Structure formats: structure tokens, C-alpha cells
Amino acid sequence: ASADLIFDSQGSVMDVKIRDDAKQYELWEKNVSALLGLSNAMKEYLEYGVDRAMKNIVSKADYIRENISRNENLILVGNVKAKTGVVSFYMKEASKEEYVKNLLEKEGFIVSCICDWDCPLFFPKNGVHYFFRISPHYYTEETNIKALCELIQTL
Fold first, then answer.
1. Is the pTM of this model over 0.70?
2. What is the CA 49 to chain-centroid distance, rounded?
3. What pLDDT score was predicted for residue 123?
4. DSSP secondary structure string, 40-53?
5. What are the Cα distances from residue 143, in Å, to 20, 60, 146, 147?
6. Which residues contact 22 (CB under 8 A, 6 or more apart)?
7. Which pLDDT tens digit goes with each residue over 65-87?
């Protein structure tokens, strides 16, 4: 490597040591800022607690899935209760996909769209082009989860 991160005894990054030979110019594309961010994110996550984070994420995802399952215009992918934080649904009417995608973005919700070409064998045959994918995080505020679910009920 062209540089190394220097850690203290708690695992926090203290410094970056750049090599003093010609190798300092090799692989310098390494994104040191991203590594520092990753280090801080991992520290925060571990301090929060892995089990606590998992329970928090699954609880939020289950709540979102329950709301999706109550909307007759949406088709939930999977079960209402699951051991995952990933929530997926698609529209019963494909013609409303772009409207829903734009509305979710306009309201500030980060939702991924899985396209039909990503997994053609498992896509429904009703003409939809997207699975909407929501992944709440342990730090996602409850007010944001509730606001999302209120919006879901209007779709």
C-alpha cells in the first residue's frame, strides 16, 4: 500500500503514514476519506450494539411491511414478519410506478428500485418494471418511519 492508517488502542484512526519510497505513488487511488468514514461508522455501530441494531432495524422493517400489506394497491414481496431489514413491494398497477417513484423522492424518502432486468425470472407478469426497496437503518428516526407509512397508505 502507498499509505497506512495508524490506529490507537481503541481502534480510532490517529494518523495516515505515507510511505517514503517510490511505492507511495502506487495505488494512491485508495480513498482515505472513505476509510476514515468507514472506521467511524463501524465504531458507532459497535458502540450502539449489533444485537440492538438488528432488533431495531427488523422492528422498523416489520412496521413498514405491515403498512404495505394493508394497502390493496401494493404487493408486498415476502412476509410481513421477517428477520431482515429489507422491505420490497411493487405496484398492483404498473402504470403508477413512475408517479410513486417520483412522489417518494419528492417527499425525501430514499427508496431503491430493483428493475425487471435485475431478476427477470422472479418478476411478476403484470407489466411492472420495479420492485421498490426500502431499508431502514437503526438510526432512522421513528418520525420518518411513520411519515413514510402514512405516505404508503395514500398510494
1. yes
2. 18
3. 79
4. HHHHHHHHH-HHHH
5. 51, 11, 5, 6
6. none
7. 999 999 999 999 999 999 999 99
Grid coordinates belonging to 64: 413498514
Contact call for residues 126 and 92 (beta carbons, < 8 A): yes
Three cell numbers written together for 128 = 411492472
Quote the CA–CA distance of 24 and 33 in Å, as a whole number.
17
Query: In the prediction, which pLDDT does 16 show?
Result: 85
- Residue 67 near residue 153 (C-beta atoms within 8 A): yes
Residue numbers in the chain where pLDDT is lower than 50? none
Residue 78, C-beta contacts closer than 8 angstroms, at least 6 positions apart: 65, 84, 88
**C-alpha of 19 from chain center:** 36
